[in-house]
UniProtKB/TrEMBL annotation:
It comes from Streptomyces coacervatus. The lineage of its organism: Bacteria, Bacillati, Actinomycetota, Actinomycetes, Kitasatosporales. Keywords: Glycosidase, Hydrolase. GO terms for molecular function: hydrolase activity. Gene3D superfamilies: Glycosyl hydrolase domain, family 43. This is Glycoside hydrolase family 43 protein. Belongs to the glycosyl hydrolase 43 family. Transmembrane segments: none annotated. Pathway: Glycan metabolism; L-arabinan degradation. SUPFAM superfamilies: Arabinanase/levansucrase/invertase.
Length: 339
């Protein structure tokens, strides 16, 4: 494909999409994990597509490479990149991991079965740049931002009403069995943390998660997974959190449990990150998830997510807020090609 030819969403490898709508340039920046097959650059990192209309996208450019960070603690992963503006600078959050740095294996869990899965260093790092196009430099290359003893992923930024920045992240089911959402205060320049993590909710709080399991099959079936938090303030002052998990269902007469990836959400009517959080029914099923909300330049509320989980592509939905109730109006198949 010529460098000047625009790409379409069905042709763009796109896992964990995150869009920044830059009003100054009327450009949409779509961040995702680096894929050398389209960026032409090898290595774990972040690349960004750009568009003026959400339909035609410029070939991606790489804005962050883990291996280029002096003294970086990990060079694998590169998942769930997000870019947030704060104080006139741009901050990249992305999840790295290092399987050579083991964490203690947790003791037997509440279901009575010991963990056999390895636990290793995984967490979200923070990097900074003066441009949406990078290059981004790790703020502290020696460690992830959340506590190192916690196996975490998918960190996102939330700034509360008092101006206090937080990182909200998923605490991995590999350590907890029932994955949790947690938050930790950040220093003003996002270079470190303040205090201890705050528990927000656990994956099994989603009341609908096992509704499809028929009678006679135990409903307490681990693991329960938390993925992809993103926070959004509503006009009535409530706080929404988009997040993803796996819906439990049964495949086969032997009671084998499987699950489909779903895009769901929760609301804190208090408007505070500490909640309490009230779980809502999924917005989109069909192996869809890790979505986020943004507004177009004509003020339409949109959600971007990926589907399917493997070989993912970006899907766009036009959304509606009624108070703090979030609704899907329609999939924008004219932009994302359907499917």
């Amino acid at each position: 494909m010529p460098e000047t030819e625009l790409m379409q969403l069905p042709d763009m490898p796109l896992h964990d999409p995150f869009i920044v709508a830059d009003k100054a340039t009327r450009t949409y920046y779509l961040y995702t994990s680096n894929d050398p097959s389209v960026s032409g650059v090898d290595g774990t990192g972040t690349m960004v597509y750009r568009s003026h209309d959400l339909r035609g996208w410029m070939r991606p450019v790489v804005v962050f490479l883990a291996a280029e960070q002096s003294g970086i603690w990990a060079t694998d992963g590169g998942w769930a990149p997000e870019v947030h503006e704060l104080g006139g600078r741009y901050y990249l959050f992305t999840t790295l991991h290092n399987q050579d740095k083991a964490l203690p294996v947790p003791p037997a869990n509440q279901w009575g079965t010991p963990f056999q899965l390895p636990n290793y260093l995984r967490g979200t790092i923070t990097a900074v740049s003066d441009s949406l196009l990078g290059p981004f430099t790790a703020v502290d290359p020696a460690r992830p931002t959340p506590p190192e003893n916690l196996m975490t992923l998918d960190g996102t930024l939330h700034v509360d009403r008092s101006g206090q920045p937080w990182m909200v992240y998923a605490h991995e089911w590999l350590q907890t069995v029932d994955g949790t959402m947690e938050a930790i205060r950040l220093t003003p320049d996002l270079s470190g943390t303040v205090g201890d993590p705050v528990f927000l909710f656990k994956a099994s709080d989603a009341f609908w998660i096992s509704e499809q399991i028929p009678g006679g099959v135990p409903h307490q079936l681990p693991p329960y997974i938390t993925d992809g938090p993103q926070l959004y303030r509503t006009p009535d002052g409530s706080l929404l959190m988009l997040w993803s998990t796996y819906e439990k269902n049964v495949a086969g007469k032997d009671g084998t449990v499987s699950g489909g990836y779903v895009q769901t959400w929760a609301v804190a009517e208090s408007g505070e990150i500490t909640g309490p959080w009230r779980q809502q029914r999924p917005l989109v099923r069909d192996d869809s998830g890790h979505g986020m909300l943004f507004r177009t330049f004509d003020e339409r509320l949109m959600m971007v997510l990926h589907r399917p989980f493997e070989n993912a592509r970006g899907k766009l939905y036009e959304m509606q807020l009624v108070g703090h109730e979030l609704r899907v109006l329609r999939q924008r198949t004219d932009l994302d090609g359907g499917g």
